Amino acid sequence: MSLAGHMLLHCLLVAVLAPAVVLASPLQVTIESRAARIVTSPLTAWVLFVGTQVAFHIAGLYKSPPGVEAVSHAIYLVTALLFWEAAIGSTLQPRRLHGLGPAIYLIVAMPAVDLSAAWLMTNGEPAAGAAMVAGMMPIGLAAAISAWRFAHEEEARTGSERTA
Q: For the CA atoms of 110, 111, 116, 120, what is the dihedral angle to 10 degrees?
């Protein structure tokens, strides 16, 4: 498989499969311990997700042997699940991002993740970098949907306040 195809598979794992799993989850888990709150906090989830994307691609770990590659895919998936849960999930309670928080969280992740793509492009793998940029577009789509949802809810709230 080409490196571009491989990068696109990484993107499908973290930008399509992970949010689909988060949205489909019927679970609700109340976070009670301090350690669990720290690990699942939006800031920690964001740093783990973005850090994994940047570190694995800049360090060249995407070129690892099959056993290491399987571990890296598991790390991609776990960090992506945490990232998407913080942004759009409802499994972990209480939710910590409200209002425009999810949209901002997602928008800020986009250029940070694109650093990996830029690295690939400037190091002789332009097709892989382009595949990564294209494959991460669901993050932008989710940010736009989150912002629209906030605007819609805010409009409904202010409209009902005016009529009351």
A: 120
* pTM for the predicted model, two decimal places: 0.89
All structural domains of the chain with their residue ranges: 3-163
Tell me the pLDDT tens digit for each residue of 29-53. 888 889 989 999 999 999 999 999 9
Give the Cα separation of 10 and 156 in Å (integer).
38
According to the 3-state scheme, what is the secondary structure of 20-57? HHHHHCCCCEECCCHHHHHHCCHHHHHHHHHHHHHHHH
Query: Which DSSP category does 115 fall into?
Result: H
Rounded to whole angstroms, what are the CA distances from 44 to 11, 49, 158?
A: 20, 9, 33
Where on the phi/psi map is residue 109: left (φ > 0), alpha (ψ -120 to 50), or beta?
alpha
For the segment 102-143, what is each residue's pLDDT rounded down to a tens digit?
999 999 999 988 998 999 999 999 999 999 999 999 999 999
